Amino acid sequence: MKNSKISIIIPTYNRSQKIERTLQSMMDQTHSNWECWVVDDGSTDNTKEMVAKWCDLDPRFKWLERPKERKKGANACRNLGIESSTGNYIMFLDSDDTIATTCFENRCKHFEANDSVDGLIFSTQEMSETGLGPIVNKDPEVENTLNYLTMFLSYKIPWQISSPIWRREALTSENRFDEAMMRFQDVDFHTQLLLSGCQVKRIHEADFYYHTEDAHDKFHDETFIAKALVAIRYYIAKYDKGRKVGILQAKERRIYLRKMYLNAMRRFVHGCNRPQQFKSFVRMAWRTRIFSRRECLYLSLLRRVDKYQLQDKAGFGFYRLNKFLLSRIFPSN
């Protein structure tokens, strides 16, 4: 186990006030054979100088800067980290995360006991100023690769970016972060891995901490929501295509992509006064194969009802029309 080397990859952008806590949690590890690649996305604060001190303190810390010809974003940074890393195992952290002191040791131990799997999924636990909170992972009734894949495809995210640790061999040139995506990156990355047949095992032990005091309510930020919805549409179109077969045929994937579409519509679009987003979603429905033509027509009608708030106009039957459309578009899924 001592010979097992772990590569940790951390993308960062203007995180000088947070990243030291993350780096310190690696210095405190009981397992010493690791390297940490901090990949900067063009910070304009003193992140570089801050990390340079840690690189001088311990050569296991490495600093990389995203080349200007690579697309800006955490995805390119993570791919650069994968390309530069040398460990047997690879895991990803964000620049405000912390891990338990036995994290590396324990993850290596479990890999030695599970030599047939490509990835191990550990628990993520909330942490606040008052102490530890709940586990944030979501699990299917039967914990296997296929069921976790269908959760991702349905927009029921089972784990976060730092929960897994992967064998290097699993991260082939095909199983990398999609640098065209500005949001939804880890969902797409894990979907690719699972769809390609990578086998995972769930370990119900918490060794990664999500700091709630650093969280902000992104889902009330219109800029974030707009980018997230673009990413969701991109994701649905990507996995609707038949050329990406994997362990689920395209026809089977569409069952779950339909659920993702409807979950995103319910949460961010329908009744949210976002007419342009609604229009974009309806257009996408017509272009993909996850809805029938009749269902696309229902979506088009519902968009107009929503845009003009026709369901509130008495005496014209719009309330009943709206109720009918909702029953056809949003049945229990």
Q: Care to give the gist of this entry?
A:
By secondary structure, the chain is of the alpha/beta class. 43% of the residues lie in helices and 17% in strands.
**What's the CATH C level of the largest domain?**
Alpha Beta
CATH topology of the largest domain: Spore Coat Polysaccharide Biosynthesis Protein SpsA, Chain A
Q: What value does the Rg take, in angstroms?
A: 22 Å
- Class by helix and strand content? alpha/beta
Roughly how much helix do the residues carry, as a percent range?
40-55%
Please name the fourth-level CATH homologous superfamily of the largest domain: Spore Coat Polysaccharide Biosynthesis Protein SpsA, Chain A
- Ranges where pLDDT stays below 50 over 5 or more residues in a row are none
**Distance linking N and C termini:** 45 Å
- Indicate the overall shape: elongated
Mean pLDDT: 91
Give, in order, the helices and strands.
EHEHEHEEHEEHEHEHHHHH
The number of helices is 11
- Beta-strand portion reads 15-25%
Largest sheet: 9 strands, mixed
| CATH architecture descriptor of the largest domain | Alpha-Beta Complex
Notes on the protein architecture:
- It is a single chain.
- The protein is of the alpha/beta class and 333 residues long.
- The protein has two domains: 6-214, Spore Coat Polysaccharide Biosynthesis Protein SpsA, Chain A; 218-329, no CATH class.
- Helices cover 43% and strands 17% of the residues.
- It contains eleven helices and nine strands.
- It has helices at residues 19-27, 47-57, 74-84, 103-113, 145-153, 185-195, 222-240, 250-269, 275-287, 293-308, 318-329, and strands at residues 6-12, 34-40, 61-65, 89-92, 98-99, 119-128, 131-135, 164-167, 200-211.
- Strands 1, 2, 3, 4, 5, 6, 7, 8 and 9 form a nine-stranded mixed β-sheet that branches.
- Helix 7 (222-240) packs parallel to helix 9 (275-287).
- It is elongated, with a radius of gyration of 22 Å.
